[in-house]
């Protein structure tokens, strides 16, 4: 209460010298803020800062944005907000002076202190006015406490059955008046016989009777004169309905609505004060149709709409409903909507169809119609991805995702081109409506390889131009050229041929496998459920291979990530939409590889993008890991090993492999190659241990045993042999006997061998025996001495 009263007192003389001398900085700032309260509209221009009128948008004095700055001053401290400034993009008057002048808050306070020494105009709002508003609100609240809920005789006489009305003791209706800032400014009382009066002290201007709670962003607001008319109109048309009490208050209520919601459609449900052309009033002057004239004047001032009961007698919409019924009244209400002809139409936007809506301005359109305008700005080449709910645009080559932010900015551009006002809610609702109108995207065909100038069909071995019906999401930047007769890699790509032979040590089989790997990247054969791992010392060519893969996939389709990113839903959001995922220079990885296993296996994985709804999706991408040292996986189920293709040199990407099955088989051979097995043995101790074993077709080999068996005899017990191997190679953390039994099958599978077991009198026997010639290097000395000589 005191904060609202202080500004009505005499403004104190405030000068820099007598207020700042000897004063602490914080005290000065607080003192200036207190003295400047309620005066910022005059203080800021005095400081050389131009601001729009309170509640309006205008040019930002900080960033220079033309229509994003809003001087709110809702707490009387010069509060402002700019949608274009860098964060923090809001503050009070003192912040505005500091940011505009690029000075500190203290320096800004000193400037304001000097300005405060000038005479400032007195504010119009007086203490008595505030007290009056509070008194009437208290008076209405006291009356409301005396009411009961029931059916009003007045409404019953009109055929309006509303049993939730607030009634006084004499069955009179008590209808509170409110403003858009939810202040109670009075009340209307309607007696059972229809007599109406305002409660003494009521302030009618800009106040209304609301039929329901106001929405945060109403799309349509309908304003009537009387309360009964408002109840009827709520049955005739969708929207928020307000009763302005009488025709004289229509304009002030409508202006308040327009200032609050720039893009809301405002309809004036006017009373038809019809009369004969020659009718005169009691003073002998021609009678005017006040209801129609006032409604049209209101609509003209704020780009609104009018609808009038189609009668040749005096009637409001409630009268018309009583005489014609609800259905006929509903049709007449919609068909009677018009905008006064004297309104200067602003740049009507034409839609694709030839409907009446094509004559509307953006401000007059509904959300769905604005969505059509937005679609037309993209030449109707938009579609919706069902999994991510993201919009994609066909650019003549591929369907590329368009962020909601870009869509909103495009919608804003349409408004700005027509020099029409807009609101964040109106822009967002147009984007939401657009998404509901778009066709759903179809999955792309795997047999099509996208190039910059067309697509190559692997089934027909033909090249043709792009088509949006291919639904391609990815295409490389390489231009396809038809092969020339007699063309060979050796003669027409000598540098590549030289690199390929050097990398493969002139091994023809290995060169074929490298080419198959490159084809896998080029054709985006993620459906092979394999991933590539390139290892080697620095300078061995790994980076060259990765660059060639990136060229074939297209730089815009390549993303760099890490193994950790593949396993984290939040970080996985960064790799969605790419065809090649490169894991460069990984630090030594040790883990179960759950992320890379799920992605390459074609499983749906969780995606948790920032500020968006989480979803799950299959990521159609080839994964390429580039490491100095091979990754170590703890998974023994075979889920990783059967997908892992290892090269210990960098990979290269040509385009001459057209048989996907043959290429896939070549990669499968590379999985089982000796060099790949050597790398796995170097990173997995159990796989390496299996290399010292000989497997037979029957379980007639070593007993399994356990760690407690004494004496320690690794030549008899398999698990003790494993412990001896670990100790002999100075390796820590051997797996338990239970885990050993579970993981042996996967480890032996790397050698294409099976792990067999059966019960015997001595215990569980395996089909494995030690290869003494190789195991001798880590066997304990006592055991070696006891072995029989060959």
Describe the structure.
The structure is a single chain. Helix 14 packs across helix 16. By secondary structure, this protein is α/β, with parallel strands linked by helices. It is built from 30 helices and 33 strands. It folds into 6 domains: 114 residues, DNA Primase, Chain A (Alpha-Beta Complex); 73 residues, no CATH class; 137 residues, 3-Layer(aba) Sandwich (Dna Topoisomerase Vi A Subunit, Chain: A, domain 2); 82 residues, no CATH class; 194 residues, Rossmann fold (3-Layer(aba) Sandwich); 102 residues, Winged helix-like DNA-binding domain superfamily/Winged helix DNA-binding domain (Arc Repressor Mutant, subunit A, Orthogonal Bundle), CATH 1.10.10. The protein has a 5-stranded mixed beta sheet with strand order 10-12-11-13-14, sandwiched between helices. Strands 22-23-27-21-29 form a 5-stranded parallel beta sheet. Helix content is 36%, strand content 15%. Strand 19 and strand 20 form a beta hairpin.
Give the gist of this structure.
The protein folds into six domains: 2-115, DNA Primase, Chain A (Alpha-Beta Complex); 131-203, no CATH class; 208-344, Dna Topoisomerase Vi A Subunit, Chain: A, domain 2; 356-437, no CATH class; 489-682, Rossmann fold (3-Layer(aba) Sandwich); 685-786, Arc Repressor Mutant, subunit A. It contains 30 helices and 33 strands. This is Plasmid and phage DNA primase.
- Helix/strand/pairing category: alpha/beta
Name the CATH architecture of the largest domain. 3-Layer(aba) Sandwich
User: How many domains comprise the coordinates?
Assistant: 6
- Tally of DSSP β-strands: 33
Low-confidence stretches: 1-21, 118-128, 342-350, 352-357, 650-667
Q: State the separation between the terminal residues, measured CA to CA.
A: 106 Å
CATH topology of the largest domain: Rossmann fold
Major sheet strand order? 10-12-11-13-14
CATH class of the largest domain: Alpha Beta
Main pleated-sheet profile:
5 strands, mixed
Please give the oligomerization state of what you see: single chain
Mean pLDDT: 79
Total number of helical segments? 30
Shape: elongated
**Residues in β-strands, percent:** 15-25%
Helix content: 25-40%
Radius of gyration: 40 Å
């Amino acid at each position: 209460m005191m904060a609202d009263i202080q500004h009505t007192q005499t403004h104190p003389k405030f000068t820099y010298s007598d207020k700042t001398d000897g004063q602490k900085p914080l005290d000065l700032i607080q003192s200036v803020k207190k003295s400047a309260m309620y005066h910022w509209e005059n203080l800021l221009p005095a400081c050389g800062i131009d601001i729009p009128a309170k509640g309006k948008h205008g040019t930002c004095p900080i960033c220079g944005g033309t229509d994003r700055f809003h001087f709110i001053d809702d707490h009387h401290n010069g509060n402002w907000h700019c949608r274009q400034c860098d964060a923090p993009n809001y503050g009070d008057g003192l912040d505005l002076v500091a940011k505009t002048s690029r000075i500190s808050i203290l320096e800004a306070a000193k400037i304001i202190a000097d300005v405060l020494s000038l005479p400032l105009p007195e504010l119009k709002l007086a203490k008595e006015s505030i007290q009056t508003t509070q008194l009437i609100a208290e008076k209405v609240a006291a009356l409301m406490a005396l009411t009961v809920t029931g059916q009003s005789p007045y409404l019953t006489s009109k055929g309006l059955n509303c049993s939730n009305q607030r009634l006084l003791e004499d069955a009179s209706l008590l209808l509170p008046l409110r403003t858009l800032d939810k202040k109670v400014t009075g009340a209307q009382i309607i007696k059972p016989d229809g007599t109406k009066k305002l409660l003494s002290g009521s302030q009618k201007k800009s106040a209304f009777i609301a039929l329901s709670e106001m929405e945060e962003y109403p799309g349509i607001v309908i304003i009537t004169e009387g309360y009964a008319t408002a109840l009827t109109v709520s049955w005739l048309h969708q929207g928020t309905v307000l009763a302005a009490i009488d025709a004289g208050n229509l304009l002030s209520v409508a202006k308040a609505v327009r200032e609050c919601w720039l893009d809301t459609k405002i309809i004036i449900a006017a009373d038809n004060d019809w009369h004969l052309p020659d009718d005169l009033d009691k003073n002998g002057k021609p009678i005017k149709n006040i209801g129609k004239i006032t409604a049209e004047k209101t609509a003209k001032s704020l780009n609104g709409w009018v609808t009038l009961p189609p009668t040749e007698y005096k009637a409001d919409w409630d009268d018309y409903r009583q005489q014609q019924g609800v259905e006929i009244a509903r049709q007449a209400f919609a068909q009677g909507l018009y905008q006064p002809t004297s309104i200067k139409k602003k740049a009507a936007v034409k839609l694709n169809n030839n409907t009446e809506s094509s004559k509307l301005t953006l401000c007059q359109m509904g959300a769905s119609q604005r969505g059509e305008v937005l679609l037309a700005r993209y030449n109707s080449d938009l579609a919706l991805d069902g999994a991510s709910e993201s919009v994609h645009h066909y650019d003549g080559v591929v369907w590329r995702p368009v962020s909601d932010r870009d869509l909103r900015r495009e919608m804003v551009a349409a408004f700005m081109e027509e020099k029409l006002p807009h609101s964040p809610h109106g822009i967002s609702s147009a984007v939401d409506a657009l998404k509901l109108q778009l066709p759903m995207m179809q999955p792309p065909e795997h047999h099509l390889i996208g190039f910059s100038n067309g697509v190559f069909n692997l089934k027909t071995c033909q090249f043709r131009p792009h088509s949006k019906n291919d639904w391609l999401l990815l295409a490389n930047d390489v231009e396809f050229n038809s092969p020339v007769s007699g063309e060979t890699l050796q003669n027409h790509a000598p540098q590549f041929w030289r690199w390929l032979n050097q990398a493969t040590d002139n091994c023809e089989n290995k060169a074929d496998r490298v080419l198959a790997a490159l084809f896998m990247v080029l054709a985006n054969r993620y459906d092979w459920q394999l991933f590539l791992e390139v290892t080697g010392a620095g300078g061995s060519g790994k980076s060259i291979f990765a660059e060639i893969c990136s060229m074939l996939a297209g730089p815009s389709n390549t993303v760099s990530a890490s193994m950790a990113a593949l396993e984290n839903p939040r970080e996985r959001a960064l790799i969605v939409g790419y065809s090649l995922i490169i894991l460069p220079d990984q630090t030594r990885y040790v883990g179960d590889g759950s992320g890379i296993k799920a992605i390459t296996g074609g499983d749906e994985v969780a995606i948790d993008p920032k500020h968006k709804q989480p979803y799950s999706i299959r990521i159609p991408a080839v994964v390429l890991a580039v490491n100095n040292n091979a990754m170590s996986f703890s998974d023994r189920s075979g889920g990783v090993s059967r997908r892992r293709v290892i090269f210990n040199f960098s990979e290269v990407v040509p385009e001459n492999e057209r048989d996907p099955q043959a290429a896939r088989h070549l990669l499968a051979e590379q999985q089982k190659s000796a060099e790949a097995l050597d790398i796995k043995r170097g990173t997995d101790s159990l796989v390496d241990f299996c290399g010292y074993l000989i497997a037979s077709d029957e379980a007639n080999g070593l007993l399994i045993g356990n760690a407690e068996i004494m004496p320690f005899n690794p030549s008899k017990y398999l698990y003790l042999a494993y412990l001896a191997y670990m100790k002999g190679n100075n390796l820590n953390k051997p797996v338990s006997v239970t885990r050993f039994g579970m993981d042996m099958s996967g480890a032996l599978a790397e050698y294409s061998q099976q792990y067999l077991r059966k019960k015997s009198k001595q215990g569980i026997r395996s089909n494995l025996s030690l290869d003494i010639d190789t195991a001798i290097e880590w066997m304990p000395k006592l055991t070696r001495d006891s072995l029989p000589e060959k």
